[in-house]
Amino acid sequence: MTGLRTGTPARGGFGGFVARARAAGTLVVQPRMGMADPARMREGLRAVRDARAVTVGTLTLDSYTRTGDLAAARRALADGTGLNGYPIATHSTATTRAVLGGVADGGFPVQVRHGSPAPEHIVRALLAAGLDATEGGPVSYCLPYSRTPLREAVEAWRRGCELLASAEEFGASPHLETFGGCLMGQLCPPGLLVAMSVLEALFFRQRGLRGISLSYAQQADPRQDEEALTALGRLAAEHLPDVDHHLVLYAYMGVFPATPGGARLLLEDAARLAVRAGAARLIVKTTAEAHRIPTVAENVRALETAAAAAAGEHARLAGSVRGGVRGEPVLAGSGRGGYGGPLGTADGRSGGPVRAGGPPAGALRVEDTGIEAEARALIGAVLDLDADIGRALVRAFAAGYLDVPYCLHPDNAGRTRTSLTPDGRLLWSDTGSLPIAAPRGPRPPILGSAGLLTALSHVRRSYDARAAAGPPPRTPFAPGGPVPLPPRTTSTPRRELGPTTP
């Protein structure tokens, strides 16, 4: 299978649920969660389903399964040795179906998250269990996490994508999320993250997937992140017009604040960013992130905290429209509308002045510092190398047209470097052979070991300091304002979304 299937993109399953939530003006929140014990995994999924938020579930897999060492996973289960995730390819299909039975359905879809450069065994196991949503990518799950040659990872992901796409023939609505917008998690300038997310999405599309989400990881400066997400939304609409797609934001993936207050502030800022910039889904982190694997209860609190912050931002933005703010969101100086078109309903047609799942029209005006132009240059250079996007990606890394800063994989050129400004903006200090313009003005310094450690801990220091300083004065619906959690009712927002399968 080398081309995109024809026909109308599927609207059921994982992607359909997110589309319905977006049309209802609700941010979907999702944890990272995986336990080896089936009973604990089932209870974790039930707790996520019942949280005071619109959620999707997660089966996060263990390290042995990610690396394909299934013999080690079997030994660990037999010996009672702890695993750091759910071993989906080692537990029987009947066991996993029992975990999901009565929990996962059209109103609570579940995604498998893994981290594997060779995902075929994982895709086979999840399809056998009745699931059809996962994530990753041939670059993003190879370079940062393995020593697997990139060419081998691309071929393995080709087979994995085609296997996942084939589930559509049996009535499923397969969905695949790029991890390209995360890469090393931090210190990657946004232009590269946006480009990699689009390129991996195009790889998925070429392999037959019609339900795709594009990722972006929160960095250290919200204005830069707003610009990046706006650019990602526009590029996704341009390159994937025939694919059912949405944006997913990851709460900061670097060194997390050490204090509960700092961690909570960072998560709330991520939720507000997702709403302002048009993401439909948020991957949360917890207040325990800097210290240990979080409990189920901590994950649920994080989901509810993020949902409350998102609701407050939606209300603030809706209030700004009622107060007279009008006009299309734009990148200042670009002369084009943001997000690639109105998103008022689940099928992308305009549903009124408030963008469901995103900011109201006119709510977000973003300075254009060149992120979109940089991403376009990178995407264009790669696509010019070969009609087959997998081969193009391999050639791009060999030529240094794609080069991830601070990544030690043998297939990464390793010539690019970045710098962090005092206010948290990521800049290139050395672009290596990237086909982009050199940075304007004085070149930022190349970080030494001390500077690198300082940059890596910038977000932790900033948010822990904010938490220690106490809350600033707040006005109703001000950004960051407290929003009470909605009371539990018999008619939850999730059920009001209705079924998502035909």
Describe what you observe in this structure.
With 502 residues, the protein is an alpha/beta fold. It has 16 helices and twelve strands. A six-stranded parallel β-sheet has the order 1-8-7-6-5-4, sandwiched between helices. It has a two-stranded parallel sheet with strand order 2-3. β4, α7 and β5 form a beta-alpha-beta unit. The N terminus and C terminus are likely disordered.
Helical region count?
16
Structural class: alpha/beta
How does the major sheet shape up?
6 strands, parallel
Oligomer state equals single chain
Which whole number gives the mean pLDDT? 84
What spatial order of strands do you see in the largest sheet? Answer: 1-8-7-6-5-4
**What integer value in Å does the Rg equal?**
21 Å
Helix content: 25-40%
Quick description:
The protein has helices at residues 13-23, 38-49, 63-67, 70-79, 93-100, 120-128, 150-165, 190-206, 222-239, 260-277, 296-322, 371-383, 389-399, 449-456, 458-469, 493-496; strands at 28-30, 57-60, 110-113, 133-136, 175-178, 211-217, 244-250, 281-283, 330-332, 365-367, 417-420, 426-430. The protein is of the alpha/beta class and 502 residues long.
